[in-house]
Amino acid sequence: MGRWKPGAKDRLRLAALDLFLDQGFERTTVEQIAGAAGLTERTFFRYYEDKREVLFDGREALERAFLGGVADAPEDAAPMAVVATALEASASFFPDDGREWSRRRQRVIAANAALRERELLKLAGLAELVARALDDRGVPAAQAVLAAESGLTVFGLAFAQWIEEGETRSFADLQREALATLRALAGSAGIA
Amino acid sequence: MGRWKPGAKDRLRLAALDLFLDQGFERTTVEQIAGAAGLTERTFFRYYEDKREVLFDGREALERAFLGGVADAPEDAAPMAVVATALEASASFFPDDGREWSRRRQRVIAANAALRERELLKLAGLAELVARALDDRGVPAAQAVLAAESGLTVFGLAFAQWIEEGETRSFADLQREALATLRALAGSAGIA
Hints:
- Chain A has helices at residues 8-23, 30-36, 41-47, 51-56, 59-72, 79-90, 99-110, 113-136, 141-162, 171-187.
- With 192 residues, chain A is mainly alpha-helical.
């Protein structure tokens, strides 16, 4: 295979997304995905556990990015500064040339309740992971949970904005803006 | 039935929780729950759709409390002040004499992956609801999402603390404290 051809894994994920969008996630089989990519089912299962995995494949790499960001933060950084570093590190997963793939992926997920739930649970899992990493740095438990979950809230909002039709700002810029908005909001949180 | 006896619904939910704790959620049947409460299955289904509903029954009332809190906030209140009012309104659902029930319920949920997911999705649903209510008040979309999700993060943390063994502070106090901690954290969220 010449190196200008997309690799088998990319062909599978593009074929899968086309089929999910055309005929729905539920109705698409691994056989159809492999066939559309000109590959065998056996090859499919070399890269993915099942068809859902095509949509959630990046999860572990994203987890590593978040944890790497936490590890990179200066030892004396405040909890939300650590989270900000983790968010910065996550932004590399969402380059502008991946935005259209993410938009199409989101349409598939939005159309299927089980996939929507999976996506929410993925975010919750990321927040737990970051909270544990903050905990390991000696951040008090309550602060670790609040900082981590706020960070994932910022991440989730930035992602939703990033894939909106017509949006051209980078993921990193949207995340910084969302974090600044959160700071401004929380700063005015007086209870009368 | 004398009015000093617990009503049928309370008997069912207490019997269900005992059985869930003793033998596990999955292995418990509606027939067993009804039997343990001295009632018929038919009576069970008058109060609950299925056995899971026994654990998630309060959801709609909690939603109404949150929305009532949003509605009660002064028209010119800042988004996080509106959320704080909604949180205050939610606290009435967690009186001290309900803490032991909540602790036991949580043990059932913690032991079952599907129930843990249901609980997470319930929180996510509450955040969406509050975000929409803020949106309806004219709060810009991004602020509505950030304020609502931060509020539910505070709620979730306070709830987790409230049901810890040995915890004696009230739900309302824990929520106020968690919100104050979030404010302090977010205020120091500088990105170097």
